[in-house]
Amino acid sequence: MFDTFTPQLLELFATSLWETIIMVAISGAVGAALGLPLGILLYLTQPRGVLANPLLNRVLGTTVNAVRSTPFIILLVAIIPFTRLLTGSSIGTMAAVVPLTIAAAPFFARLIETALHEVDHGLVEAAQSMGASTRQIVLKVLLPEAWPGIVAALTITLVSLTGYSAMAGAIGGGGLGDLGIRYGYQRFLPEVMLAVVLVLIVFVQAVQSLGDWAVRRLSHK
């Protein structure tokens, strides 16, 4: 078994892990940047919300649900023309970032909406009674109060993206998933597949532990 892991393969493991980290980090950051305002808008436009707009809320909610309910492997294939338009290619690490980001944004938005629902509505009403603007309510009440939930949402999103990034390897997306497919499956090396799974487990555990630590620190403030 150990003879399988030549220096070249170990170097490939390190490169693939780095590609996975890059994919998860970029798609997580961009997905969060898009999903945060979307989640806030979903919360604000709900019935009895600060900017109540049932029609807009319904349209946004339906769009978010449509993307979220699409299996990621289908999303990968469906947006290949769009991915090629943005990156010039449909394979590789940067190409995989595009569908990963599209999958992350609505997922994160729903988690943000849920986190904002956990904020005491009395605080929002008190801010409104003092004449606070919508911007002030969002920046000085909602986001500070929901900060632990937002960090927890980001953690969950990054963990999910790790699994998605491995799936992207099925169509040449790079990373550990691609390594597992090309060496573990196509070359009949089950030990490589097992090693990929173990590395992904350790990576996910590290992300989850860091996120849990951050949530605990924020919750105690």
TrEMBL record:
GO terms for cellular component: plasma membrane. Its main location: membrane. InterPro entries: AA_ABC_Transporter_Permease, MetI-like, MetI-like_sf. GO terms for biological process: D-methionine transmembrane transport. It is found in: Cell membrane. Pfam families: BPD_transp_1. Keywords: Cell membrane, Membrane, Transmembrane, Transmembrane helix, Transport. The chain crosses the membrane at residues 20-44, 65-83, 89-109, 150-172, 192-215. It is a multi-pass membrane protein. Residues 17-211 form the ABC transmembrane type-1 domain. Belongs to the binding-protein-dependent transport system permease family. CysTW subfamily. This is DL-methionine transporter permease subunit. The lineage of its organism: Bacteria, Pseudomonadati, Pseudomonadota, Betaproteobacteria, Burkholderiales.
